[in-house]
Amino acid sequence: MTLPAGRDRYLDVLRAVAIIRVVVFHMFSVGWLSYAFPAMGVMFALGGSLMASSLQRSTAPAVTSRIRRLLPALWVLAAFLVPVMLWHGWTTADPNGRDLRLLVFWLVPLADPPGSAWAGDATVVLWYLVTYLWLVLLSPLAWRLFRRLPLVATALPLAALAATQLAPGHAGLDLLGSRAAAVVLDVATFGACWMVGFAHRTGALRRLHPALVAVLAGGCMAAGAGWAVTHPAEDGSGNLNDIPLAQGLYSLGFAMLLLRAAPAMRWLPRFRLLDSAVSVLNARAVTIYLWHNIAIALCFGVGDLLRVWQLGSWTQLGYFSVALVLLCVPVLVLGPVEDLAARRRPTLLPTQRAAASDRVPVEATVAARGAG
Question: HEC states along the chain?
Fold first, then answer.
């Protein structure tokens, strides 16, 4: 049975938790968080479910609408960051190099957009948009394969991932060049999570017995954790984010468990503040993701001016609080771009009620979308 199209507040809650986890991880760099909640795998699983919902209605609009929602927020970041990098001396002498031809990836991120080493905190997160865009573009083909051979479609990314990691010296990836290799590796790492999203939306996951899902998911998570222990990252850590095969397996199992559970969220509207927070985090997810690392990078300098270091054992939380306040600036000022991209009436704090009811007619958005 296919799940009905519409707003699923459980998915909204999962995305909100994933966004919070990403921000917390980048602030505190706590490796165990990658096991407690593999946020990126969950986000790709949610993306796959929503993409399947759109593909059930039509193919081309499903792809174009996802791209339309993704790119404007990136363009806003590019309009700010690229001039700042150039002003700061981003030249061909930079360790990352400056090739003007690669600036096209700031418009259409088919590969990692180029950036200076100085702006690494801002550009390091862009791989997610690249991977998401490729999974969207590949979705029509993946959808047809999934409808015919769901197990094959889900296993194919994992097989490709295993091939890249088990080949001597990752020889296959070395032939592609660094940017292309990064795209292939990331798509292979999270492609199975995207397919689990398909399985969730079509009801295939729910048709499986809970015990079977628990066994399959537990096996994937155990295999991923085991690979991380026996094949640690170059720095010796077991952080899943630095071990692709472990990340792919563990995230797949974790996403299966979350999406199979799918509890009703009828209780959420009773807690209006929490309900509104979930709505805001979802409506501003791309803006928060793109700008949170910049806020974290700036919070230490701003925090020093505010003498946050005097807080003693609370110093870290003090700097984190400064980062959250700094993050509110792009969320409030630039966040409405996401509303325009989604054809909603722009608002500072998009609650669920606003997102559901304040839609702008298509005719009224033409000029606005042309500017975004």
Answer: CCCCCCCCHHHHHHHHHHHHHHHHHHHHCCCCHHHHCCHHHHHHHHHHHHHHHHHCCCCHHHHHHHHHHHHHHHHHHHHHHHHHHHHCCCCCCCCCCCCHHHHHHHCCCCCCCCCCCCCHHHHHHHHHHHHHHHHHHHHHHHHHHHHHCHHHHHHHHHHHHHHHHHCHHHHHHHCCCHHHHHHHHHHHHHHHHHHHHHHHHHCHHHHCCHHHHHHHHHHHHHHHHHHHHHCCCCCCCCCHHHCHHHHHHHHHHHHHHHHHHCCCCCCHHHCHHHHHHHHHHHHCHHHHHHHHHHHHHHHHHHHHHCCHHHHHHHHHHHHHHHHHHHHHHHHHHHCHHHHHHCCECCCCCCCHHHHHHCECCHHHHHHHHHHC
Q: What are the pLDDT tens digits along the chain (372 aa)?
A: 455 555 789 999 999 999 999 999 999 988 899 999 999 999 999 999 999 999 999 889 999 999 999 999 999 999 999 999 989 888 755 555 566 778 899 999 999 999 998 999 999 999 999 999 999 999 999 999 999 999 999 999 999 999 888 876 555 555 556 788 899 999 999 999 999 999 999 999 999 999 999 999 999 999 999 999 999 988 888 889 999 999 999 999 999 999 999 898 999 999 999 999 999 999 999 999 999 999 999 999 999 999 999 998 899 999 999 999 999 999 999 999 999 999 888 998 887 654 443 343 333 322 222 333
How far apart are the C-alpha atoms of 346 and 134, rounded to whole Å? 28
Place of tokens 């507040």: 9
The residue type found at 50 is: L
pTM of this structure: 0.90
| Spans of all domains in the chain | 9-18+32-268, 271-371
Quote the CA–CA distance of 241 and 84 in Å, as a whole number. Answer: 29
The token duo for 11 is 């998915």
Rounded to the nearest 10 degrees, how much is the dihedral formed by the CA atoms of 46, 52, 58, 61? 30
